[in-house]
Each structure stands twice: as C-alpha cells, then as structure tokens.
Amino acid sequence: MVRAHNQATAKLAPDQALSTAQTALVQHILTFCQQHWRQPQTAVFVIHGAAGTGKSVVLSHLLAVLQQARQQPDSPFYQGDNHLLINHPEMVKTYKQIAGQRAGLRKKDVEKPTPFINRYAKLQQRADVVLVDEAHLLLTQSDRYNRFDQTNQLTEILKESHIIILVFDATQMLKFKSYWPQQLLTQVLAPYPTETTRLTQQFRVQAGPAIQHWLTAFGTAGQLLPQPQPDSTFDLRIYTDANQLYAHLRQQNQRYGLSRLVATADFPYTLDGKTYYVETENFKQPWDKNMDPNVAWAERPKTIDEVGSIYTVQGFDLNYVGVILGPSVGYDAQHDCLAIRPERYEDQEAFKQRRDVTDPAVMAEMQRQIILNSINVLITRGRQGLYLYASDPVLRRRLAQL
C-alpha cells in the first residue's frame, strides 16, 4: 500500500523537480523581481494556466528562493519582506506544513489575504514580493465573514506591495463574492507594469489527448462527447451505481493511496458541528468535517470514509478521484449537453447576492458558470483516474450511453 499522507505536500515542496519550462519561468520571474525591486510603482507578473499545469509548484519554488536569498548579504533580495497569500484554508495548511519543514521558510510567511491587507494598511509600508496563489479566489466585494470591508482584495494587495506574482484561472471561480468578470482583471491591473505568461503542459491528469479533450469539454462547457477509447495511463470510468464506484475507489486507495470521493455542492451542509450526508439512490456517506487545523483533508487517511467538496480538494492532486454529480447537474436532451440547475445547488454562500449585478440574465449565467467551474475543479483532481456518477437518473443513462 502507498501511504497518502504528505503526498500533496511533497508535490509543492521546493525541492520537487521542475520541468525545463518551469525552471525557465522561475528564473524569468526572479529577473523580473530584480528589475522592479523596491521601485516606486508596483509591478505585476501574472501566470495563467488550467488546473494541473504546475502554477502552485512554480510559486512554491519562488517563495523558497526569495526567502533563502533574504538571508544572503550578496543577494539582490537581501532582507526582503516577502509573503505568499492564498484564500483557501486547506492550501494554507499545506504551505505552512512545507514552511515548517524547510530551512529559510517560516510558517508566518504564508497567510490568507485579509490579515495581510489589514496589517500592512496599518503599518503604512509595502511588502517587497507578494505571491498570490489561486488569485481567482480573491474577493471582488466586501465580505463580513472574511472581515474584508473593501471592495476588491487584489486592489488592496496592489497598494501594499512592490511586486506581485499571481496565478489566475478563470475556470476555477466558485462564488459570487470572488467572481471575476472577463475584463475585471485587466481593468484592475491596467495602471501597473504587467507581464503575463501561460502554462499549458498538464502535470496532474496523466491522460492522452483524447481523454484530456473529453474532460475539458465536459468540465468547462458541459459538452457530452463520446467516451474516448481506454487509455493505459488514465482510468476513466462512468458508473450507474454509486456504491460500485465507491468500492472501486477504496480498492485504488489501498493500492496507490490518495484516492478520495468528492461531490458537487448539491447536498445539504451546515457548519454547525453536526454530521451531514451525501445521499443518492441507495448510497449514503458523510460530508467531510475537516476538523484538523494543521493537516489538509485530502492528506488524512480516514477521509476515505468521507465525501469531499470543491473547498477541500481545490488545488490538490489526488491519485484517483470519484465524483458524484448532484441534482444541480441534469441532462438537456434538446442540445445533448449538461443541464445546469442553479435552484438545486445547495451552496447558498456561492450565490450570495451582489449589489453590482441586477440583470437576471447575467445573474443566471454567473450561476451556471460557477456550477460548471465546480465540476471542472472536481473532475481534474485525479492523476491516474476519474470515476464519475450522476445522481440525476436521466443524465446517468445518457452518460452510460457514451
């Protein structure tokens, strides 16, 4: 049996080998940082890329280099004040684990955006280099729950930083309060010198082009393409029985570790300490409780007995992932595609009203996109395989026909 614990942490470890392209990008960004080091105007470097293209790995290496260089008097980054920000509690845990195990890194170098913004606003000084992972999760409106009173977290981080390195993937936005319309990122960054790159090589999903295309069409556009021929490097299976899916997934967890069951946010869940369940046709398993403050959900062996969500697995690599599509995901027979039903989506926080959006058609499209994004996040978690089940019986039959 391969132990799951610490595999996700190992993936982001600074000593993890980089590809040739990733190595070149790290060096290019370090040159960018040196050119703009403590200049009056904030400079920004944006890394775009789909899930699994190694964006977080690049950031982890950059943080390690910068934090080690701050202790070297002959380095251009000597005594640098650098931070990594991420609006994702599970990823914060992982980065802090890494920092606690590596010389030159400190756990306090990693935090969520709001504490950083509030602290530096009071200090009236700017940090040197701020790396922002999963920047598509940054808030674009005030949020009492996160104690953020301003209107856009990136705008505030720009005020408090000399250099910002951020990674952004528009297909992973999951809530109205962190919704980035197509032109918003461009508008926010317009006043600043900005350089942009895009990572395209897929490092997570070890599948051939046909399966990669099938996953992209399904997760980003809701298209139902014929199921590709079997791929020796990736195990794609569609199930008509959730219990059978779960049994096979547990077998893979025994063999390879880091295999987990996840579901769309279509089943009731409340943060009140009680146990809530994902239930569908003769299947019932508890939602994740995620009570460990230090270890990410995916890395705890006992979570094979739970069902994870987009909020517990976004940004993580699994070996095998089982995905249950809930009632918000049905079948559109007229167009032979997924039918997205926002009224069946149980994550009410995701659709919390925005004061700046009043057009019902725009609102409906935002809701549809968020649910599609959540599907995309879930189906792209597995390195070696995806097991898929639809709770909607009509969609389940159509998927089986593929």
TrEMBL record:
UniProt cross-references to InterPro entries, sorted A to Z: P-loop_NTPase, SLFN_3-like_DNA/RNA_helicase
Top-level lineage group: Bacteria
Protein name, per record: Schlafen group 3-like DNA/RNA helicase domain-containing protein
Gene3D superfamilies: P-loop containing nucleotide triphosphate hydrolases
Stretches assigned to the Schlafen group 3-like DNA/RNA helicase domain: 43-392
